[in-house]
Amino acid sequence: MSPREIVALRHYLISGPDNRTLSDATDEVAFADIAHASCLGIEPSELAGRSVLLSLSTQLVAGITMIELDGVARRMLLCPPDVDMNYAADLIADAEIDAIVTDTPERWRELGLDTVVTASLPLHPAAPAAVTHATSWLMLTSGTTGRPKIVAHTLAALTGAIVGDTVAKDAPIWATFYDIRRYGGLQIFLRAVLGAGSMVLSTPNEAIGDHLARLTARGVTHISGTPSHWRKALMNPAIGSFRPNYVRLSGEIADQAVLDGLRNAFPDASIGHAYASTEAGVGFAVNDGREGFPASLIGSTSGIAMKVADGSLRIKSSRTAHTYVGRSAPALTDADGFVDTGDMVELRDDRYYFVGRRDGVINVGGLKVHPEEVEAVINQHPSVRMSRVRARRSPITGALVVAEAVLASVADAGRTGVIREAILANCRAALPPHKVPTAIRFVQQLDVTASGKLARHA
Asked: What is the second-level CATH architecture of the domain 361-443?
C-alpha cells in the first residue's frame, strides 16, 4: 500500500468549521492546531514504524497522540489509566511494544524498554511525520477480572459505522461518559474527528453534577454512555439543564426503565441504544424506544451478518476486530467468521431481548438466573433508579438471588418497606420462583467500573 492510499486521522483535521476543538475540564485544543504541532517530547517521525504503547493520564493528550501517530506507528496499544501493571510486561511482550508514550515515565522505565517518550501540553510547533503505515489499533478488553486480551482493529473497521452516517451533521459537539481509550469512547472520538465536530472529554473523578454542568456550558449536542452512566446522571439535579439532541446507550443491556427515564428527561432528543463490543465492533442501533431489537435484524443486512446459536448472539462484519494479539491468543472468530459475543438473547414474539452474559449466570439449584433479567424487573418500579442482582451462597440450593437497589428519590427513604414488597410482587408476577430475590437491600449508590459498567464483582 502506498502512502497516498493510507487514510489517517490527520487528514480529517482541517475539514469542517475553523472552531472545532477537543477539550476536557482544564484545557482546550483546536483540531486545526494539531495538524501543525505536537505534544510529544521527540519528533513524531522517530516513532515511524514502531509498535507504541500509549499510557497517558488525560484523554486529551491521549487523543492528540492518537492523531499524531495514526499512519505513522506500525501499532498503537491504547492503555486506559487503570491498566493493571501486574500485566504490563505481558502486554508489552504480546503486542511487541518497542516504545512507550507516557506522562508518567517512572511507571514504565523499569520494564526495560529503551524508548520511553514523554507527552504533554501545551502543543509545540512540529512538522508532522510522513504517513507510511496503515496503523493497527490495539485495544484491551474490559473484562472484570484477570489478564485483559489485546484486540486488533484497523481504522477502516473502527470507522465502518461512521463513514457515510448522516447523524453527525451540522458540526455537532460530541461527548461521552466513556474513556476514549475504550471501544465505546473511541467510537465517539472518531465520530468527532471524521464528522467535522468538536468533542468534550470526561475527566476522572469529576463529580457527575460538575460534569453535566460542563457539558451544558459547552453546548454538547450528541452524547453516549452505558445505561449505568445514564442511571447515575438521571439521579443528579444538573440533568435538568442539559439538553442534548442525540442520546445513545451501549455497553450494557438497555432496559425499558432507563430508556423511558431518558425519554422523560429529554423529550425532544433522538434516543436509542447501540450494540457494540471491542471484538465484534458496532453491530446495530435500535431507535424505536424499546428494549431489545427486532428479530428482522437476524440474518444478513448492510454487510453485517448476525445469528443466534445456543442462545448467544453471533456477529460477522467488516467492523469486527481482525484478531486477538499475543503469544497464546485464542481465535477471535469461529470457522465461519462469526464472533461469539457471549451475550444471551431470547426471542419473544417478533423481538429478541438481551437476558445477560453467558459467564454471569447464577445457578439456583441447577436452574439458571441471569442477573440482568431480574434487574430489568426491579428497575421498572418508579421508585428505583438502578439495581444490582447477585448470588448469595446457600447450603441447600448452592446459591440464592439477592438484590441491592438505589432509590430514585430521597423522598422514598421512609417507604422502603412498602417499596420492597411492591418490587417483590412485580418479580413474582414476571419471573419464575427461582429468579425472585430472597432479599432486597436499599443502598446509597452502586459502583460502576472504569469501563462504565455496573461493578458485579465488587
From this structure: 2-Layer Sandwich (3.30)
Cis peptide before 122 (omega within 30 of 0): yes
Q: What is the three-class DSSP state of 409? A: coil
Report, as an integer, the average pLDDT of 2-31.
85
Q: CA-CA distances (angstroms) from residue 53 to 84, 113, 305?
A: 14, 11, 33
Domain ranges for the chain, please list them.
Answer: 3-347, 361-443
Predicted local distance difference test score (pLDDT) of residue 144: 47
Same fold, 3-347 and 361-443: no
Q: How, if at all, do strands 136-140 and 75-79 pair?
A: parallel
Q: Which three cell numbers stand for residue 293?
A: 431489537
Contact 58, 205 (CB under 8 A): no
Given a cut of 60, whether residue 256 has pLDDT beyond it is yes
The answer to whether 402 and 439 are in contact (CB under 8 A) is yes
Measured CA distances, 285 to 160, 271, 282 (Å): 13, 10, 8
Res 145 pLDDT > 80: no
Categorise residue 416: left if φ over 0, alpha if ψ from -120 to 50, beta otherwise: alpha
Superfamily per CATH, domain 3-347 = ANL, N-terminal domain (3.40.50.12780)
The pLDDT of 418-442, averaged and rounded, is 97
